[in-house]
Design brief:
- The complex is a heterodimer of chains A (402) and B (77).
- Chain A is mostly helical.
- In chain A, 74% of the residues lie in helices and 0% in strands.
- Chain A has 15 helices and no strands.
- Chain A has helices at 10-28, 34-49, 54-78, 84-107, 120-135, 144-151, 165-173, 178-221, 226-256, 274-278, 283-303, 310-329, 333-358, 367-389, 391-401.
- In chain A, helix 3 (54-78) packs antiparallel against helix 4, helix 12 runs antiparallel to helix 13 (333-358) and helix 13 packs antiparallel against helix 14 (367-389).
- The mean pLDDT of chain A is 95.
- Chain B has 77 residues and is mainly α.
- In chain B, 56% of the residues lie in helices and 0% in strands.
- Chain B has four helices and no strands.
- In chain B, 27% of the residues are buried.
- The model of chain B has no long low-confidence stretch (mean pLDDT 91).
- Classes of the chains: A mainly alpha (402), B mainly alpha (77).
- At the A-B interface, helix 11 and helix 12 of A face helix 3 of B.
- Chain B: Pathway: Cell wall biogenesis; lipoteichoic acid biosynthesis.
- Chain B: GO terms for molecular function: D-alanyl carrier activity; ligase activity.
- Chain B: Keywords: Cell wall biogenesis/degradation, Cytoplasm, Ligase, Phosphopantetheine, Phosphoprotein.
- Chain B: It comes from Liquorilactobacillus mali.
- Chain B: It is found in: Cytoplasm.
């Protein structure tokens, strides 16, 4: 059987265009054909997780059954009582598979865990979000069918954007008016074409044409060189356009299906500080971390009056958030340093914002300071991506081997 | 209730504008961040008696003083 990874080649897009056509027509007549939607979802999942990747398909099925069973169990428990330890335990059990998948390569020298599959982290984020909302009493009903549709929604399964259960189910159950659907359809098609430009032209130029040459030159020079600086910018551009392009495909496809999956990027390089950057970069992930880790931790500390100083609480929250994000990217020194770097950057940013608030009269604020702020933020971010790229690691090994 | 909420917001943001411009976007202007949001939720809990869990907090529904007032009043009712 053939295997096809999402949004990689023209055939995949042709298939999307063809198979989504009945959904488009139905929506224009203000109808939903749920059985057909489920059928093509299944088809696309089979395409990505079947054939030579069949073992990933098995892992996915086992994982989803296990997690849905866990969610249902917790939902039943929560409708009767609400013990904090049971909640922590449930969250922990839910992330065990992800932990195994992340830790295995670190222990066994890069070997991939057999329980892993493409997109396991993104499904795990959705599940943990659900468990937390069940705990808060925000999810009042457990719907098996919708939960499966939500977790396995094929346009976003491999790399997000990370949707929220209540938002998704709202869209899934609701029939849009023709006018509203047309608006969504138009945007969806536009996003997919913008995605082509981002991924297959701009990211191709930076990542495939420029990057290997620049990397080679930086390695030959060794140490800090202009080539290394060039690598930093080329890598950052490739990272953004590749991921933003992919995200546009995922969001565009969702829109065509009548599901308004949240956007992932909002001109991140126009951010005037690091805090703003995280409101614009990989938004569905950073908002997930903000809502489910940072805010809940801060809430817990403040409510129980564990720490007095608000500044200390905020900084502790940032450190926790970015360390977890670092470890989530993978257990290597450069991902963890990347996390720490951003924690320090945002702590510094907060301190500066407090200082600025106090000395509002003395500090100039005009077009030039704004431009300088954007320039500084852009370079800080690009430097963090250089750490993230792992290229410094490659350079070190290259040096040792010589 | 309205006065109380505005007072909480003034304390939280250190800004007088929240009392004069009730349609001021608190997040876009940077007056409130995630940290301040949590403080706001805790203040609303102790001073107004409304219990809002973090996961019920949808930014777009709480972004101006007017929206916060309306939200609290609807939760009170």
């Amino acid at each position: 059987m053939i295997n096809m990874q999402p949004y990689q080649n023209p055939t995949y897009f042709m298939l999307i265009a063809l198979t989504l056509l009945p959904i488009v027509i139905a929506n224009l007549y203000e109808k939903k054909i749920y059985w057909y939607q489920t059928l093509i979802s299944f088809g696309f999942l089979l395409l990505s997780f079947g054939g030579i990747k069949w073992h990933q398909g098995i892992a996915l099925i086992v994982y989803v059954i296990f997690e849905i069973f866990l969610i249902k169990l917790y939902f039943n428990y929560r409708s009767k009582s609400n013990n904090s330890w049971i909640f922590y335990l449930t969250v922990f059990v839910a992330i065990i598979p992800l932990i195994i998948v992340k830790v295995t390569p670190a222990i066994y020298g890069g070997q991939v865990s057999i329980i892993g599959f493409l997109g396991i982290s993104y499904i795990t984020f959705k599940i943990v979000g659900m468990i937390m909302e069940i705990r808060d009493g925000a999810i009042k009903e457990f719907k098996l069918g919708q939960t499966i549709q939500f977790l396995l929604f094929f346009p976003t399964i491999s790399s997000g954007p990370i949707d929220r259960y209540r938002r998704f189910v709202g869209d899934y159950d609701n029939q849009l008016s023709r006018e509203k659907y047309l608006d969504l359809l138009e945007k969806g098609v536009w996003y997919i074409f913008l995605g082509f430009l981002y991924k297959f032209f701009i990211a191709y130029f930076f990542g495939t044409l420029l990057m290997p040459q620049v990397a080679q030159n930086a390695l030959t020079r060794g140490g800090i060189s202009w080539w290394l600086v060039a690598y930093m910018y080329v890598y950052s551009m490739d990272l953004f356009f590749d991921f933003a392009g992919y995200s546009l495909f995922a969001v565009g496809t969702s829109y065509i299906m009548g599901i308004a999956t949240p956007m992932n990027f909002n001109r991140p390089f126009a951010a005037a500080n690091i805090k703003e950057f995280w409101n614009r970069w990989h938004m569905s992930l950073s908002f997930w971390f903000r809502d489910y880790i940072y805010m809940r931790l801060v809430f817990f500390i403040m409510k129980n009056k564990l720490i007095k100083s608000r500044i200390t609480i905020a900084n502790l929250g940032y450190l926790t958030l970015f360390l977890i994000m670092g470890f989530w990217h993978g257990i290597t020194w450069y991902y963890i340093v990347y996390g720490l770097f951003h924690a320090c950057a945002i702590i510094t940013c907060d301190a500066w914002l407090r200082f600025k608030k106090k000395h509002r009269q003395q500090i100039p604020s005009n077009r030039f300071t704004k431009a300088f702020a954007i320039f500084l933020t852009f370079n800080t971010v690009c430097f963090s991506f250089l750490i993230f790229s792992g290229f410094l690691n490659t350079m070190m090994f290259h040096h040792i081997m010589k | 209730m309205k006065e109380k909420i505005i007072e909480i917001l003034q304390d939280l943001t250190g800004s007088e504008e929240v009392a004069t411009n009730l349609d001021l976007n608190l997040f876009d202007t940077g007056l409130i961040d995630s940290m301040a949001t949590v403080q706001l939720l805790l203040e609303l809990q102790t001073q107004c008696g409304v219990d809002v869990p973090v996961s019920e907090f949808e930014r777009s529904e709480w972004e101006t003083p007017n929206k916060i007032i309306a939200k609290v009043e609807s939760l009170k009712a």
